[in-house]
Amino acid sequence: MRKLIAAMKISADGKFGNADGHADWVDAWSDDYGLTSRIDACVLGGRMYPGYEQYWTAIQNAPDQPLPMTGNLAAPAEIEWARFAAKTTHYVLSNTLASAVWPNTRFLRGLEEIAALKQQPGKDIYLMGGGRIVSSLIDAGLVDKLRLIVHPLIAGNGRPLFAMSERRKLELRNMQPLAHGRLSLVYGIG
To answer: Parallel, antiparallel, or unpaired: how do β-strands 183-189 and 170-177 relate?
Structure first.
């Protein structure tokens, strides 16, 4: 059975974004959490997908031009992720979205479809976010591993990643200090 691996960037107090949902403390979105060789599909929520598609399409189409969303040039790792994303199937969990620019995009309408996706042959699946889908899929018992990059700040009134209805035990599998005081944590979910 394929594993569903959630990976997120969070603040030290467990927030995935400010009150408006934007994580202004994240410098680049290209971290693959060591997953690209292990995955052949990505799952995103319907709220996150339109911005995700726009961001990575801009890099795919003009990697040497400033990004319209930030005004910054894409980092080399972002260009590499954009190439990987272009050839990787993306599944969007949404009851409202029905079309996408990317040809390798499929839509899922419920949690049972994610459970069925895990049963199909293939590599593991990267659950990218947003925060609501990650929280709900952990709560539903569908997430097998959790990879976090913890940023050294307290976000305060930000949006919490862990809004579960019940307690979940985590088993620490790996911990690694990163540059700029960040910390990589890998957990198995029980």
So the answer is: antiparallel
